[in-house]
Write a structure and sequence with these properties.
The structure is a single chain. The longest helix has 23 residues, at 42-64. With 395 residues, the protein is α+β, with helices and mostly antiparallel strands. The chain has helices at residues 12-23, 26-38, 42-64, 68-78, 80-94, 96-99, 128-145, 150-156, 230-236, 283-298, 303-308, 383-389; strands at 2-6, 100-104, 108-114, 158-169, 178-188, 192-201, 207-219, 262-267, 311-322, 331-339, 345-354, 360-372, 393-394. Strands 3, 4, 5, 6, 7, 8, 9, 10, 11, 12 and 13 form an 11-stranded mixed β-sheet that branches. Strands 1-2 form a two-stranded antiparallel sheet. The protein has 3 domains: 2-104, no CATH class; 105-249, Roll (Thiol Ester Dehydrase, Chain A); 251-395, Hotdog Thioesterase (Thiol Ester Dehydrase, Chain A).
C-alpha cells in the first residue's frame, strides 16, 4: 500500500488532493458507494472501504509523482478555476518529496499482544510456540482487514493452510511485555502466498523475532490447491511484491536418522485440534519441544541438572514443513536426532509420522544454542553432555 506521512496533517498538498478529487466528481462516486454499502453486510462494507482506500492512495500518488504537469493540463481543459488553483499550489506539490515520505510496500497489518503468565515457560520467557500462535492470529486479522474474514472464505468456498514456517528468535519476551506483530504478504505464486512477520517489544521497539510462513490457497470441497484470485492478491499487495523480501530457501537438509535416534509416541488430544478439525500448526512445535525435553532426561540431563549447571539450551530458529494434517485421536511418532554439533550450537531434526499408516505429517529443523543462565550469552556445551548425547549426533 502507498503511505503518505506528513508532520502537518492540514498541509496544502492534502487539501489540494481532496479538492482535485471533488472537482473530478469523485465525491459523488464515494457517496454512491456509501449508499450502496448501507444496504450491504458489514463484511462487504469492509471490502468496499479497503478498495476505496487503495484508490484514494493511488490518486494521491499520481498527484505527487512526475505526472503533475499532465494532471494540471487535464484539469485546465475541464475547469480554468481548477487550473488557477493548482498553479497557486504547484510549489507545494513540487516540494512534496521534502515534506512527505512516499514509500511503496504491500498492505501491512499490526496487532499487539500482552504476554500472559500461562504463556511463559520454565525460564519465565514467552514459550516459543506462542510466537507462532501470535503470528497466526495476526494473519487472520490482516485478512479480515481487507474484507476476507473467516465467513467470507466460507462464502467463496476456499481457505488457507500453512505449508511452511521459518522463525528466528532474537530476544526473549517475558510476562507482562506487550508484543506488536506486524505482518504483510511478501510475495505470491500461483497457489501460495508468503507472509512475513516482525515481532517487536512495544516499549523498546526491539525486534524479538522475525518469520515467514507459506500459506496455500485450497478448495473447500476437495482440499486441492487453487489459483489465488487476482482481486485477493491486489488487496494484499496493491503495489506488488515486497522488493526487500529475502529469497525463498530450501528446507534445511538432514542426514539420515541414526539407529539410536530418540523416538516418542503421543496421541493427539482434544486441546490440540482447531476449528479446521485437525491439529493446529503451532501444536507440532509443542510436540517437538516435549520430545526434546524427554530425550534430554532420558540421556541423564533433565532440566534440573541443566539449571544446576548454570546453563540452558534454547531455540534460536525453527523451520517446520507441514506434509499432511493430523486428526483427533491419531497416534503420532516423533523421531529426533542431532547433526553439526559445534562449540555452542547444534542442529536438531525431527520427523513426525502417523503410526497407523506411516504417513509423514511434518518435518522440523531446529537450531539450538547453549547459553549462560545468568547473562544469556552463548556458552560451550559441557564435554560430559556432548559425550552422553554422542549416539544421537550424526557427524
Amino acid at each position: 500500500m502507498l503511505f503518505l506521512v506528513s508532520a502537518d496533517p492540514d498541509s496544502r498538498l492534502q487539501k489540494s488532493s481532496l479538492a482535485a478529487m471533488k472537482l473530478r466528481g469523485w465525491s459523488k462516486v464515494s457517496e454512491d458507494q456509501r449508499n450502496s454499502a448501507g444496504n450491504a453486510t458489514l463484511r462487504d462494507f469492509r471490502s468496499l472501504m479497503a478498495a476505496q482506500t487503495y484508490w484514494i492512495y493511488s490518486v494521491l500518488t499520481a498527484l505527487v509523482r512526475t505526472q503533475i504537469d499532465s494532471i494540471t493540463s487535464h484539469l485546465y481543459a475541464e475547469s480554468g478555476r481548477a487550473c488557477k488553483w493548482l498553479r497557486v499550489n504547484i510549489k507545494s506539490l513540487r516540494q512534496c518529496q521534502n515534506t512527505f515520505i512516499l514509500r511503496a510496500m504491500p498492505a501491512s497489518h499490526e496487532r499487539t499482544f500482552r504476554v500472559r503468565y500461562y504463556e511463559c515457560d520454565f525460564f519465565g520467557h514467552l514459550n516459543n510456540v506462542n510466537y507462532v500462535r501470535y503470528m497466526q492470529e495476526a494473519a487472520f486479522d490482516a485478512s479480515a482487514a481487507i474484507g476476507y474474514d473467516v465467513l467470507r472464505y466460507i462464502e467463496v468456498k476456499h481457505h488457507w493452510l500453512i505449508y511452511d514456517t521459518d522463525i528466528e528468535y532474537l530476544r526473549p519476551a517475558r510476562y507482562g511485555d506487550s508484543i506488536r506483530v506486524k505482518t504483510w504478504i511478501a510475495d505470491a505464486r500461483r497457489v501460495r502466498a508468503r507472509r512475513a512477520y516482525e515481532l517487536r517489544e512495544v516499549a523498546s521497539n526491539e525486534m524479538l523475532a522475525r518469520a515467514y510462513s507459506d500459506w496455500v490457497y485450497l478448495r473447500n470441497d476437495n482440499g486441492r490447491p487453487a489459483s489465488i484470485p487476482e482481486d485477493l492478491l491486489t488487496a494484499f499487495m496493491p503495489d506488488g511484491p515486497d522488493a526487500t523480501a529475502s529469497a525463498r530457501t530450501r528446507f534445511p537438509g538432514a542426514p539420515p536418522a541414526p539407529a539410536s535416534a530418540f523416538k516418542l509416541q503421543r496421541r493427539t488430544g482434544w486441546r490440540d485440534v482447531d476449528p479446521a478439525q485437525h491439529v493446529n500448526n503451532a501444536t507440532y512445535l509443542g510436540y517437538a519441544e516435549d520430545c526434546r525435553i524427554e530425550a534430554s532426561a532420558a540421556h541423564g540431563w533433565p532440566m534440573t541438572r541443566l539449571t544446576d549447571a548454570g546453563l540452558a539450551i534454547v531455540t534460536r530458529r525453527h523451520r517446520i514443513e507441514y506434509q499432511q494434517p493430523a486428526l483427533l485421536g491419531d497416534d503420532l511418532e516423533l523421531t529426533m536426532w542431532f547433526s553439526n554439533a559445534r562449540r555452542a550450537t547444534v542442529d536438531l531434526h525431527y520427523n513426525i509420522i502417523r503410526v497407523s499408516d506411516s504417513t509423514p505429517i511434518a518435518r522440523i529443523y531446529t537450531l539450538l544454542v547453549c547459553v549462560d543462565l545468568q547473562n544469556g550469552k552463548p556458552l560451550r556445551f559441557p564435554k560430559e553432555l556432548m559425550k552422553d548425547f554422542a549416539p544421537m549426533v550424526v557427524a
